[in-house]
Amino acid sequence: MSHATIATATATAVEAASTAAAEVTRQGAPVVSQFFRSLVPDPTSPVQLVLLGLAGYFAVRSALASRSKGPEKFAMGNVQETVVPTKRDFTPEELAECDGHDEETALHIAVRRVVYDVSKARGFYGPEGPYANFAGRDASRGLALGKFNTDILTDIDDPIDTLEDLDKADNEALDEWATFFAGKYVPVGRLVDAPMTPERVARAEKKAAAKEAAEKEAAEKAAAAKEAAEKEAAEKKEAAAKEAAEKEAAAAAAKEEEVANTESKEETANTESKKDI
Questions:
Q1: DSSP-assigned letters across all residues of 235-265
Q2: pLDDT at residue 90 tops 60
């Protein structure tokens, strides 16, 4: 048997084994048995028996490996690139609609004003994921500071966070995240401020007024608490001073009484002494 014949036979066997492995997974052993019989019509032929042995070996090994492996667990490295949809601009309110709350809803996140489709990473950014609070939102500040609670997020009615107050270390951390997202997920657009429509202006003014009122109320409560604390401290100080004065007066009175008693005793003793003389 020539080297070319052996190579061809081996290639045929490997291809047959792959096909057989797929059949094992899909339909089971009976179909594969029939497949092998059609592949090796003359079991007395040494060449066909070699092919059958090779094919069987690779089929069983491939089938067992695929079955023992089990379902693939989700990992960041499993995220696959998808076809890039038409890029568009997202306002914060429009981005908030892409929160992946169900399988039919897109799952997007913005980092440094670039919107990424992270729908294939629902295990991380979906409703039950560790980064679920970032779904449909600008995650830039939270990623920079390593904070994942909702308090770190900018309200969707507010202008986009400029991140101007971040220091060098925070910006470097955010740059690393931005590089990660750019290499892992599909960019689908950019995050832009919504136009200042009359309705948005009205909401912003209402929110600003409510914030001002809340701050004023908080300041008044703080001032009242401070005043009450100062008054209480003054009363305690006054009570302590009064108590100290009373103790001092009582001590002085006791001292005077003791002196008076001593003088009385001495006078009595002198009187008795004179009677004896």
A1: HHHHHHHHHHHHHHHHHHHHHHHHHHHHHHH
A2: yes
Strands, E, within the chain: which ranges? Answer: 88-90, 108-111, 114-117, 186-191
Buried-exposed string 94-112: b where 16+ CB fall within 10 A, e elsewhere: bbeebbbeeeeebbbbbbb
Are 93 and 137 contacting, i.e. CB atoms less than 8 angstroms apart? no
Could you give the CA distance from residue 58 to residue 229 in angstroms, rounded to a whole number? 83
Express each pLDDT in 26-70 by its tens digit: 444 444 444 445 555 555 665 555 555 655 655 555 555 444 443
- Which one of 19-23, 92-96, 249-253 scores highest in mean pLDDT? 92-96
| pLDDT tens digits for range 216-256 | 999 999 999 999 999 999 999 999 999 999 999 999 888 88
Nearest to 112, CA basis, from 156, 173, 62? 173
Instruction: At 194, give phi and psi (nearest 5°).
Output: -75, 150
Kindly report the backbone phi and psi dihedral angles of residue 130, in degrees, each rounded to the nearest multiple of 5, phi listed first.
-70, -20
Q: What residue type is 262 in one-letter code?
A: T
Which residues lie across from 110 on neighbouring strands?
115, 138
